[in-house]
């Protein structure tokens, strides 16, 4: 699959922009704060309905405008589809596929699969468990509609349960109703644990080879899933913690507390890894994601690389650029130096200057 073109109106620092992409490697270069990342963000939005930076819709609209529009043509299996996104300041965004409005964001999933790699991905390795859960959820929601539905049901039940725990503090008799929520909580929670376990297993199968190649067989990497509670005794654990949950007015066990550790040669690199080791692990993780997506959708996703080349040493840059030759890629960078003398094939170059894009040829 690939993105044929994109049009932006009043999006971030763009008044009006229309670009056609190449099926291969597209480079966006320019000084800082010119609008390179904004273009990748718009593409990501059309894939997931959300900004990769977690920005709100109103922040995506040009400062002096009330609405913004994104139009994108995506080609999958030789068929071109049109995605329209209409961003409004105080109302939910409108989305249409081939001119027909969709009601649920999930209807968009699968039309365009994107793997987005930015220096912030290092946070998946370095930061707290929330970042790793977000990673699992973002990936799984793009690939598995059942997971998406289980996760949203789970979060709904979790909110209801937490609300009830707060009410119980004022009205003890409500305790009996916990049971009703707990059954559903465990049912959805188990599905999530099971899917996450399979996901980590599959990613391990792919990542081990990639990481071993990048590090010249020096490092063996493994993700170890650490569920907050094993699925077989989820219900017992939840019951055991009921009194505590009532006291603290929040649910203490369940997939919303899951984590995974990243081990290199058996050592947890979140705690003990060097900066370079952590960065390489993030790179392996992202490259594995490409093949994970491919396995599920039987097609290559689009790869967005935001400012990552300058962060990698020349060996890792080579590995990355060599392994993406068969994927449509959008790369942002401040200069073209990284590509000169390296014989990497660039198909299209865009120069970004203050909300305008030029095609030097
Ligand atoms: P860097 O190399 O530093 O990453 P970049 O070219 O990727 O820079 P972007 O993040 O794409 O830069 O764009 C940043 C520019 O967009 C900034 O100048 C910022 O002020 C502007 N900008 C962000 N949001 C809006 C908005 N809603 N309206 C107008 N301009 C905006
Ligand atoms: Mg940027």
From TrEMBL:
Its main location: cytoplasm. Gene3D superfamilies: P-loop containing nucleotide triphosphate hydrolases, RecF/RecN/SMC, N-terminal domain. ATP binds at residues 30-37. Residues 2-329 form the RecF/RecN/SMC N-terminal domain. One of its GO terms (cellular component) is cytoplasm. Belongs to the RecF family. InterPro entries: DNA-binding_RecF, DNA-binding_RecF_CS, P-loop_NTPase, RecF/RecN/SMC_N, RecF_2. It comes from Blautia hansenii DSM 20583. It comes from the Bacteria. The lineage of its organism: Bacteria, Bacillati, Bacillota, Clostridia, Lachnospirales. The keyword Nucleotidyltransferase does not apply. One of its GO terms (molecular function) is single-stranded DNA binding. The keyword rRNA-binding does not apply. The gene is recF. Pfam families: SMC_N. This is DNA replication and repair protein RecF.
């Amino acid at each position: 699959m690939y993105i044929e073109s994109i049009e932006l109106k009043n999006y971030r620092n763009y008044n009006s922009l229309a670009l056609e992409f190449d099926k291969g490697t597209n480079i966006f270069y320019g000084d800082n704060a010119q609008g390179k990342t904004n273009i990748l963000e718009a593409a990501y939005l059309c894939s997931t309905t959300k900004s990769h930076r977690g920005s709100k819709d109103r922040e995506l609209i040009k400062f002096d405008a009330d609405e913004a529009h994104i139009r994108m043509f995506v080609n999958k299996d030789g068929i071109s589809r049109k995605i329209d996104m209409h961003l409004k300041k105080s109302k939910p965004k409108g989305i249409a596929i081939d001119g027909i409005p969709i009601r649920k964001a999930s209807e968009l999933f699968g039309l365009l699969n994107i793997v987005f790699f930015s220096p912030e991905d290092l946070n998946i390795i370095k930061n707290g468990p929330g970042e790793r859960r977000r990673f699992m959820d973002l990936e799984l929601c793009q690939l598995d509609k059942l997971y998406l539905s289980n996760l949203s049901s789970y979060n709904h039940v979790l909110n209801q349960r937490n609300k009830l725990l707060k009410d119980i503090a004022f009205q003890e008799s409500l305790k009996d109703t916990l049971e009703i929520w707990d059954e559903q909580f465990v049912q959805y929670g188990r599905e999530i644990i099971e899917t996450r376990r399979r996901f980590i297993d599959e990613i391990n199968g792919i990542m081990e080879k990639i990481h071993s190649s990048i590090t010249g067989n020096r490092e063996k990497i493994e993700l170890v899933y650490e569920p907050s509670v094993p699925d077989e005794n989820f219900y017992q654990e939840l019951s055991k913690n009921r009194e505590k949950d009532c006291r603290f007015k929040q649910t203490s066990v369940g997939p919303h507390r899951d984590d995974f550790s990243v081990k290199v040669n058996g050592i947890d690199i979140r705690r003990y890894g060097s900066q370079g080791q952590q960065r390489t692990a993030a790179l392996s993780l992202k490259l594995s994601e490409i093949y994970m997506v491919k396995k599920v959708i039987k097609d290559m996703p689009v790869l967005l690389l935001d400012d990552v080349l300058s962060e990698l040493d020349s060996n890792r840059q080579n590995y990355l650029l060599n392994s993406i030759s068969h994927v449509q890629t959008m790369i942002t960078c401040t200069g073209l130096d990284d590509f000169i003398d390296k014989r990497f094939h660039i198909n299209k170059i865009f120069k970004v200057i203050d909300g305008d894009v030029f095609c030097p040829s």
